[in-house]
Amino acid sequence: ETKCKICKSNEILNAEETCSTLNGVITTNNKVPLVCEPSYYLINNTCKLCNETFGNLCQKCTINSCVSCGLTGVVNTDGLCLSPDFSECTESFNTYCSGCSDKSDFIKNNVCIQNINNCDVTNLNGKCVNCVKGFYLDYNTQMCVSTPQTVNDCKTLYFKGDRCVRCKSTFYLTENHACLKCSEKCLTCISNTNCILCDNNLIVKNGFCVSGSDVSDNCNKVVTGTSICALCVSKTFRNEDGKCENCMENCVECRNIKTCTFCESNHFLLTNSSACISYDNLINCEDKSVRGCLKCSFGYFVENQFCSSCDSKTTNCGICNFVGKCTSCLNDFILNESSECVSKSQVDNCIKVSDSKCTKCTFWHVPDYTKTKCIAQAVWWVILLCVLFIISIFVIIIAMSIYFFIAILNHHKTEKMREKCCLFDIKKTNIEFVKTDIVDIVVNKKCIEFCGKTEGITKIPVAIESRELICVGNVGKNVIKVQFSLKDNCTKYSIRTEPKIMTIPKGKAIEFEVFLTPNYSCIIEDKIVLVSANLKKGETSQIYIETKAETEMSTRLDPDELFEEKLLGEGSFGVVYKGKFRGNEVAIKKMKEFGNDKTKSNEFEKEVLMLDKFRSEYVVHFYGAVFIPNKICMVTEFAQYGSLNDLIKNRSKITIQKGVKIKFMKDMANGLLYLHTNGIVHRDVKPDNLLVFSLGLDDKVNAKLTDFGSARNINLLMTNMTFTKGIGTPVYMAPEVLKQEKYKKSADIYSFGITLYETFKWGEAYEKEKFKFPWKIAEFVISGKRLEKKEIMCEKHFKLVQNCWSQRPEDRPNIDEVVNNLKAF
C-alpha cells in the first residue's frame, strides 16, 4: 500500500499518513496550517472563523480584533462588530462610526454616547457646544441652564445670546467667553500681557505700553500706538523689530543691511545688490550707468559690470566682442578657429600675418580657407612655366629637327634638281646669253615662243601641255634665288615652270622648263615675271619675259573671237545671235547657265564631242563651243533663210517651187541617213530643225539638218511629260514616244513623215480649229488615226507620208528607202 509523504499546499498529513483538507486553510507546511483565508484567523495552529469570535458582521479580522465589518457594522473599542441598533451610529462604510443618529450624542470608543441634557451639539470631547432652544450654555460648568448668564463688558453676544464673542475696548475675550481688563493704557490686547494698540504718544514694547521716545530718530512716521516705524528716513531701512537702521555705504534705498536697491549718483549697484561702487572704479569704460559699464574702450570688454582687457581672457588678443570673444589678435599673431591667438612662429610655413590672418605662406604653400594655417598647394604658374619650358624645348627640338630635315631634303632636292635641271657653268657653254635690266642676271631669250612638236608646225594643240626652255644665269658676285611668277585664274591658258624656285651660285646658269596648256583655240601674247633675290644684299628685282603661242583650230573656241551682231531668237535652250567668227557669219547659241550642275556640264561636253565628229554636207557645220562659265555657247553655220518652219510661216511673202520643197526633203533625208548610218537618233526631226541655205534648184545642197541633241541638254522625251503650255507639242512624236515606250530610228522616220506632210501641204499638219489642245493630238495619234490627204498632194507623195507615219514602227521604211523614193520624185 502506497503512503503519502507530501500533501497539496492546502492539505495536511495526518497520523494515518493520508492527506486531509481543513476549512479556511490556504497554505500548510504539510503538518499544520500557515495561512488562512480572509474570513478566518490563525490561532493554535487552527483557522477559526472571524464571525464566531468578533460578531456575526465581522468579515475580516486579526487574532485580536475585527478589521472589516459588513452591513454597515462598526468596530468598537473591544474589536467587536456591532450593528447600528447597538452602536446608534449612522450608516458607515468604513467599519468605523462616522456620526450618531442623535445629533446630541457624541462618539466615544467608536460608539455613540448619550449627550448632556438639553445639549444640541457636542464636540468630540463630549463637551456641549450649543444648547437646545430655551437653554443657555454655562461656560463654567459646561452645562445647559434655563437662564442666560450675564457677561460684563461684552460688546457683541452670540446670536443665541448665551455667550460673548467680542469685548469692549480695553478688554479681551477669554476661552470661557468672559471679558477681562487689558493692561494699563492698552486700548486693544489679546491677553493681559500682550497689548496690540496703546493710547496716544505710547507705543507697544514687549506686550506693554511704554513712552514713544524709545523709537529710532531715523523714523519719519511711527505706527500709531506701537514701537514700529512705518516710514524710515533716506539711506535707512526698517529692521525686523520695526527700527530704522543705516543702509550700506553710498546706498540711497535698501531693504536690509546687505542688500541695496538704489545707489547715490555717480555710483552703480553690483548685480547681487551687495554694494554701491563709484564710477571712478570703472577704468577703461566709455559709457557708465547705474548698471555699471555699458561700453568699454578699444581692447576691453564688459565683464561683471567692469571692463576687462581682451588679453585677460585670450592671451595676446587685441580686440574682442562684448562677451570677450577675441576677434583680432596683436601683431604677428593669428586668430585660430578656437578664437585663440597663436604666434606666427607656431604656424608652419606662415611668413606674413595681416588682420589676425595668415595672408602669405612659404613657396608651394597657401593659406587654407580659414587663413589660420598653411597647406601645401602646387603653384600653377610654376607648373605652367615648367610645362611651357618643356614644351618649348620639345618644340625647339622638333622645329630644329624639322628645319635640319627640311634643309637636308632641300639640299638633296637641290642637288637632284641641279642634276635634273642642268645647272652648268656659263663660261663653259656655247649658249648665247643676253643682258637684262638686272646687272647680275642674264637669259638666253627674252621671249618664249611655243611651237608644235613637229618641225615646221608653229601652232600648238589645245588642252595639251606644250614645253619650251629658258636659261637663266648669274653673272654677279653673290648667290641669287630665282623663280617665275605666273598668272592665276587665267581662262585662256595655264602655265607652270620646273623647277619652281632655284638658287644659282655665281658664274652658274640653270635651265627652266616652261609648260603651257591652252584651254581653247586662241592666240596667246602675254608676259611672265622672273623674280630674283640677292641673298647677301637682301634685294629683290623683277624681269618681264614675253610668252607667245598660237593654237591649232579646235572646237574649243575663244570667246574674244566671237562678235554678236543681231538677236535671232530665244528658246528653252537659251538665246540665238547672228554673229561673226574669224570672218565667217555664224549662229551663236548661248546656253542657259548650268551653275554647279555637273551633270548638265558633262552632258554639254558630250554633245560638243559628238557634234565635232559630224562631217556631212547635209548637216549644219559646227565650228565649236565656249566652255567658260557664264559664257557657254555653241557656234554653228548661219542659214540666211532661217528654218523650213520660217519659210512655211512666211509663205505669203516667199513663193517656193514644188521641186525646191522636194529638194528640201531630200537634203533632210540625206542628213538623217548620215546620222542613222553612224548609229545616231536625231530625236527631234521637224521643220524647225532644217535650216535653209539656198532656194536655187540647181544648188547641190539647199537645206541642212541641225539641232540633233544640242538644243536639248536634258531629254524631255524620256521623262514623264504632260502636254501643257511651255512643254512642247506632240505633233512630231511617234506613238511609241507618246506612250513612253522604248523607241529607235523609226521614231525619226515618223517625225520625218509629219514634216513631209507639212512640206507638201505647206502649212501646219494639225489645224488648231480641230485640235485645240496638245493632248488631243496625242490621243488622235495613239488611237491609230491619221490626217487625210490634201488636194494639193499627189498620190505618190501622200503614199510615202503614210508609210512613214505607220502606227507600228516595224511597218515604217528605213531612211535608205525614203532617200530612194525622194530621188524618184
From TrEMBL:
The chain crosses the membrane at residues 378-409. SMART domains: FU, S_TKc. Pfam families: PK_Tyr_Ser-Thr. InterPro entries: Furin_repeat, Growth_fac_rcpt_cys_sf, Kinase-like_dom_sf, Prot_kinase_dom, Protein_kinase_ATP_BS, Ser-Thr/Tyr_kinase_cat_dom, Ser/Thr_kinase_AS, TKL_Ser/Thr_kinase. It is an enzyme of class 2 (transferase). Its EC number is 2.7.11.25. ATP binds at K590. Keywords: ATP-binding, Kinase, Membrane, Nucleotide-binding, Receptor, Serine/threonine-protein kinase, Transferase, Transmembrane, Transmembrane helix. Residues 562-825 form the Protein kinase domain. One of its GO terms (molecular function) is ATP binding. Gene3D superfamilies: Hormone Receptor, Insulin-like Growth Factor Receptor 1, Chain A, domain 2 (2.10.220.10), Phosphorylase Kinase, domain 1 (3.30.200.20), Transferase(Phosphotransferase) domain 1 (1.10.510.10). This is Fibroblast growth factor receptor 1, putative. It comes from Entamoeba invadens IP1. The lineage of its organism: Eukaryota, Amoebozoa, Evosea, Archamoebae, Mastigamoebida.
